[in-house]
Amino acid sequence: MGSEMCIRDRLSEGFYSHVALTSPNGAEIFLKRLRESRIDIRKLSGVKIAVIGKGTGAKLEKAGLYADIMPEKFNSVALGNMLSDTLTCEDRLLIVRSSEGSAELVKPLAEKGLNFDDVHIYEPVYSTGEKIDDDYAVFASAGGVRSFFRGGGSLSENTKCISIGEVTAAELKKYGINGPLLPTESTAEGIIQKILSDK
Predict the structure, then answer these.
(1) At what angle do helices 24-36 and 54-61 cross, to 10 degrees?
(2) Per-residue pLDDT of the chain (199 residues; tens, 9 = 90+)
(3) 71-90 per-residue burial string, b: 16 or more CB within 10 A, e: under 16
(4) DSSP string of 123-191, one letter each residue
(5) Helices (H) and strands (E) in the chain — how many of each?
(6) 3-state secondary structure of 75
(7) What angle do CA 124, 125, 130 make, to 5 degrees?
(8) How do 18-21 and 115-122 pair as beta strands?
(9) Whole-prediction pTM value?
(10) Cβ distance 154 to 134 under 8 Å?
């Protein structure tokens, strides 16, 4: 964790009223860090948990933690707006996410002057220079789109793009990919169903 000692102490002392997680990877690493730091999960008993979507929530449920806050649309904009509408000036929020997390998540929180720590718990690693020649290419984040194309990645003319949501689709458009397929629900299952219905 960034500012590891400080964050660990704050979690142990019950400093935070809310914790927000924005990906299954982030949730998994967060739980791992709790175990490594020997922080008893019961320390989170009074903490409200916010997740970006069902996949992130499912990772936490395996450890016995259940989300209190989840937006209808599974993206950073919706989560940020929901948190800014929910939190008060007395609340303290810990955001745990990737180093490539969207600025849109914290924008409404900062505008309202809410108290939060934005901690980058991991850095995604992407392959570079890859050419995808499969039927479908799935992009699960705007950061993944940027890293793929900036790293020299390319798509064949016959490859269809599937975007996890509208934010990722907007990033694809910047690289000339217009009209990617969008699942009805921004989850892995939603993507599978979209591929099956497109056959």
Answers:
(1) 30
(2) 445 667 878 888 889 999 999 999 899 999 999 999 888 888 898 899 999 999 899 999 999 999 999 999 888 899 999 999 999 999 999 999 988 888 899 999 999 999 999 999 888 776 667 888 899 999 988 888 988 898 899 999 899 999 988 888 999 999 999 889 999 888 888 899 999 998 7
(3) bebbbbbbbbbbbbeebeee
(4) ------S-EE-SSEEEE--HHHHHHHHHTT-EE-TTPEEEESSHHHHHHHHHTT--S-B--SSSSHHHH
(5) 8, 8
(6) coil
(7) 135
(8) unpaired
(9) 0.79
(10) no
Strand ranges in 13-91 using DSSP code E only, listed in sequence order: 18-21, 48-51
Rounded-to-integer distance, Cα 39 and Cα 112, Å:
31
- Length of the chain equals 199
Residue identified by tokens 């990906």 is 23
The sign of the CA dihedral 191, 193, 194, 195 is positive
DSSP H or E stretch at residue 59:
helix 54-61
* Tokens, residue 62: 């395996």
